[in-house]
Amino acid sequence: MLRSLLTVGGWTMISRLLGLVRDQLLAFFLGAGGVQDAYQIAFRLPNMFRRLFGEGAFNAAFIPLFTGIFEKEGRSKALLFAGRSLSMLVVWLVFLTVLGEIFMPQLIDVLAPGFRHGNLHRYQLAVQLTRITLPYMVLICAAALVAGMLNGRNHFSAASAAYVTFNIVGILSILAGAWYGHDDIAQAGAWGITLSGGLQLALLLWAAARHRILPPLCWPVLSHNIRLLLRRMAPGLVGSGVTQLNLTVDTIIATLLPTGSISWLYFADRVNQLPLGVLGAALGTTLLPLLSRHASGGDRVAMRESLDQAMTYALLPVLPATAGLLATAPLIMSTLFGYGHFTLPDVVNSAGCLRAYALGLPAFVIIKLLAPAFFAEGDTATPVRVGLMTLALNLALNLAFYRPLAWLGPPLASAAAALVNMSVLMVLLYRRDLFRPDRRALSQAGRILLAAMLMGLCAWAVTRTVLWDLPNWPGLLARLIGLMSLIGLSGGLYAFLLLALRVVTPAQLRSFAERRLNRRRG
């Protein structure tokens, strides 16, 4: 599992870093004003459907079924099931896309209720840009299904690498739009989103053909397996996508706040998504097929051991990432985005949002780890009940926070809802005897937390004494060197603390390095 986790995590990290470059260009050229707000709304809608129908509920129900059919009935039956699933998914999403294109003004009224009564240009631009980006939903969800087939057969590299093209196309489209004008950047970026969906689908179909698991073209038929897929998928639409739905609620509330709030939330969330996307996506992608195989064989002991192991792998990077974001948020935002049209107030406000999101980062990641345990056993009803509860809690907290706390309200509400979601899932899995960390595992988690807290305190002290003037340093290179030096020193300190607290031992490190070296030689 660790090898697959590193493969997916590595490609995801490359994608996130390219995404960071794309976001830097957006911040530089558009700042945090009305045009940026409209562009982010245009991306939010198809991205939400991608998470729900593509990576979320559909794949959560599809991968265990596809894996089980492949193992028990053979390749041809599994590919026929995949082809019918793909055709059903595409027909449904094309129908939604046509409706969305027709009723886009009304859709924007729901997704961004503050736009129509505020800046009229922002509202009209949001309608125009969302009409451009909506077809991306069909393309990327079809791509996610093909990626699920590849992941279900342990071909993780091709699926993870294909998603890198989204940010490459995005960077090129924004640079192309910069030749023409302010609004043209947003339009070019919107067209780049849709184009990237088609390119990702083409690359994944090519990879599936290489591995002889290309889904055949066929009409959607309501076979027994398709009906089973629909039954498992329906409740999971909320259960597996609760994080995305919570972020959408944040966006809706943010449209009622001052212009720029959507942009501050977006850039803060994007930085928070670096560790969340890498760890969450890697854990969810690699753990679900593994747990599905254990569940199909009735091996609950192996499921429990896999969850315990994945929890350790998650805590080792996510806790120091959380501590680092809390300690250095202003430095991070000023270094990454504090140029061009992204002003100092934008940096300060987005840094506050980043700290609020970071409070829930461990919960966001661990939810990605716990949910596959339910999905692997075909239980999508339990996560949906928990999801509905936390979604309602997030909405209530948003309504309570957004007036007194303004733009800090939505991220704090999301963090609190995620912590509740994680806690409830842990209790339910504990009762099912699927998540029962022993005393050794709890002790190790406590020592990891202690090491992360000490590292975070040291990073905060350095920012207050040595790098306090970093936001005013001239030039991107100087700021990057200062920030990367701090990250490198903090990482070295964290590694020393892990050794000192005996979370890992030198012998374990040597053994891991030798295994990696032998695998490369082999």
Task: Name the features.
2 domains, 522 residues, Lipid_II_flippase_MurJ/MviN, 20 helices, globular, transmembrane, mainly alpha, cell inner membrane
Ordered list of secondary-structure elements with their pairings:
Elements: H1 2-30, H2 34-73, H3 75-102, H4 104-111, H5 120-133, H6 136-152, H7 156-162, H8 164-178, H9 182-210, H10 224-239, H11 242-254, H12 261-296, H13 300-337, H14 344-359, H15 361-376, H16 381-405, H17 409-431, H18 439-465, H19 476-500, H20 506-521
Protein name: Probable lipid II flippase MurJ
Family: Belongs to the MurJ/MviN family.
Pfam families: MurJ (PF03023)
- What's the β-strand tally? 0
Helix content: over 70%
Please write the string of helix (H) and strand (E) elements.
HHHHHHHHHHHHHHHHHHHH
- What's the gyration radius in Å? 23 Å
> Mean pLDDT, rounded to whole units?
81
Low-pLDDT residue intervals, each spanning 5 or more residues: none
Helix-and-strand structural type: mainly alpha
Q: How many strands, what sense, and barrel or not for the largest sheet?
A: none
Distance linking N and C termini: 19 Å
Percent strand equals under 5%
Q: What is the oligomer described by this structure?
A: single chain
Principal-axes geometry comes out as globular
Count of discrete structural domains = 2
H/I helix tally? 20
Organism: Oecophyllibacter saccharovorans
Keywords: Cell inner membrane, Cell membrane, Cell shape, Cell wall biogenesis/degradation, Membrane, Peptidoglycan synthesis, Transmembrane, Transmembrane helix, Transport
Transmembrane segments: 52-70, 90-112, 133-150, 162-181, 188-207, 242-267, 273-292, 313-337, 357-376, 383-402, 408-428, 448-468, 480-501
Pathway: Cell wall biogenesis; peptidoglycan biosynthesis
